[in-house]
């Protein structure tokens, strides 16, 4: 529905690499801070034996040249109960000045409920597994990605630390939690990583030139009231400047709070990318996000109650193969 900009994706990746490198060594002569930070990376944040349920509150903003393009916030409650995961979420967003609010409820079986709170419309979406990966394959893929940092990745991180070891700070709190903060400016990000931004810009320019035409399925989705008026805004790339030259990370900021077992409690970050378009005009794109995790192993997702409501059935199978 919304294709991510390769420039921003690579920028975020470079930012993450730079943050890892920056935070990898403490400012003291010993490696206590470095070891503490790597302990967070090594911890399997979603291991089923310690993470059966949780609530996540999140906020996200994208701005270009000082103008806000997208703001979004929401709360998601998740619970993994064997082979029957359940989830519920409530979200609000404003895209190019258009406000929307909705709720999602997912439980057992191949259906889910979507509530368009903006227009007070209710939908039951059936046959969600049509043309998609089955739950067993999905779980296997999740198990592959939800893992701690490997020895090879740790060695790569150690190698990339370089001279960025003094930009890191950590605060130990009386309750055993720790707050890790880092703020990296353009001049502190290694040149090879900055050069990758130019490579990403070239790839992004090629993808924009060869962007696929809207599918029939997407044209049908846009007929729902929730999406009406958002047709232009949902192609987010068209509203962001196309950075073609002198693309650079201007700033990367990250703050993590973890508990005594190095499990994430909250994360907050900012990413600022600058560059020139084909006309030579300078632009800046800023991305901010934050999230808090609570109710670990003590969260029950909300259940949808269709009583007294007019619920429209939407057959996901009729929208074709969405792989």
TrEMBL record:
Residues 1-26 form the signal peptide. It comes from the Bacteria. Keywords: Signal. This is DUF2092 domain-containing protein. It comes from Paenibacillus antri.
